[in-house]
Amino acid sequence: MGVRRAVKGVGEFLIEAVGETVGEAILNLLACVLLGGLALIAYLSWSFSPRLTIAGAGLLGLFLAHGAWQTFRGPAKGRRRGLAALTAAGFALTAGTALFLLFYATGCDCL
């Protein structure tokens, strides 16, 4: 009985280790693809029109700043509506993507 339990434990450990390794590889690949896509978008927009790229980056910065302000300020009466909810959600999505890239793309060998 002891041998079967040991073999079962080793098998579960191996399945978990392989699953974690495959998951990490998929996340690293996804981060590298996302980082490459962002670099390609920046390159193509700059080659199309540097002025529009700077204007778009400024508008995106204002959008994200408003979202951060809505997210971190004191709770307002009622719930957020319209532009405030949109900018807060955009800020949360961008912050999550930035953290994902920070943790996975920095360990990527494609850099």
* Helical residue percent band: over 70%
Oligomer: single chain
Radius of gyration from the alpha-carbon trace, in angstroms: 22 Å
Order of helices and strands: HHH
- The residue ranges in which pLDDT falls below 50 over 5 or more consecutive positions are none
Please state roughly what percent of the residues sit in beta strands, choosing from under 5%, 5-15%, 15-25%, 25-35%, 35-45% or over 45%: under 5%
- Largest β sheet strand count, sense and barrel closure: none
Outline, from the CA principal axes? Answer: flat
What can you tell me about this protein's structure?
- The chain is an all-alpha fold and 111 residues long.
- 83% of the residues lie in helices and 0% in strands.
- The chain contains three helices and no strands.
- It is flat and about 70 Å long.
- 5% of the residues are buried.
- The mean pLDDT is 83.
